[in-house]
Amino acid sequence: MDLLRIGLIGSALLCSLVAGIALTFASVVMPGIRRLNDLDFLRSFKVMDRVIQDNQPVFMLVWVGSVVVLVVTAALGLWRLDGADRILLIVATVVYLVGVQLPTATINIPLNNHLQAQDLGSLSDASLHDERIAFEARWVRWNAIRTVFAVLASALLITLAVRLEGLP
Question: What b-and-e string marks burial along 130-145, b requiring 16 or more CB atoms within 10 Å of the CB?
Answer without folding.
Answer: ebbeebbeebeebbbb
